[in-house]
Amino acid sequence: MLKVVKIGGNVVDNPAMLEKFTEEFAQLPGEKILVHGGGVMAGKVQEALGVEVVKIQGRRVTDAETLRVVTMVYAGLCNKNIVALLQSRGCNAIGLAGCDASVITARRRPPIDIEGSMVDFGFVGDVTAESVSVPVVRALLDAGMVPVFCAINHDGKGNLLNTNADTIASSVASALGAELVTCFEKRGVLRDKDDDDSVIAHINPESFERMKQEGSISDGMIPKLQNAFKALREGAVKVTIKHSSELLSDSGTVISL
Fold first, then answer.
1. CA distances to 7, 170, 196 from 233, in Å
2. Is the pTM of this model over 0.85?
3. Which of 89, 116, 170, 196 would you call most buried, defined as having the most Cβ atoms within 10 angstroms of its Cβ?
C-alpha cells in the first residue's frame, strides 16, 4: 500500500534525527511519498533577517517578506538537503514544490473568524485532495521515483503560496487513497507534553474535542489532528502519528473517525 510520510520542522532542523529518519524512510518497502515541513529553520532565518515570526493557533502568518523566506528555506535548503540524503541511501527521490508540473495548486485563504476576530493569514494557500494532480504523482511513482514535497504551492496565476505541511500530506494521502504517517520529535500524541511516556494510543473526534477543551491538546497539535481527521474523511485509509525514529515500528497514536 502506498504510504505518505510527513516529517516536521524539528526533525528537519536536527541533523542526527534527519539522518536517522532518512535511513529508515529509504528502507520503507513499497511505494512512498515524503512531505516535509521546515518551520523551525524558517523561523531562525526570519529572526536572523529581522523578519517577525507571527503564528495564530499554531499556523504561520505569511506576509510578502515571510513568503520569500519560507520559499528559500522550504523549497531550497530543506528540500534539497533531504533529497540528497535519500539519494545517498539509494532512494530515488525527486524534490517538488506545488508549482512543479502544477502537481499541487492552492487557493489563497480568505480572512477567517478566529475567536471573534477576522484574521488574514496572508500568502497562505488552502489545499484539498482535489488540488493534487494524481496523474503527475502516479507517473512519478510508476517511473520508480519517490516524490518529496515541500510546503510551497501555487495558485496557477503566477503566485506562490505557503501551505501547512500537514495539510499537504493529508490532501496527498486522500487523493491517492494512501496510508498517512505523520512523524515528529515525540512518540505520538502525548497526554502530557512533558512526559514522553504519556502516548495516547488512539484518538477519535470525540476524545480530541474533550482533550482540546481540557488543554492537553493545544497549539500546533490542533491543526495536525484536524488534518488527520480530514484525511480519513476524504479517502486516506489509515493515519498514525509517531516519532521520526520509529517509522519502521508499530508505535505511535492511531487516529480514527
1. 22, 10, 29
2. yes
3. 170
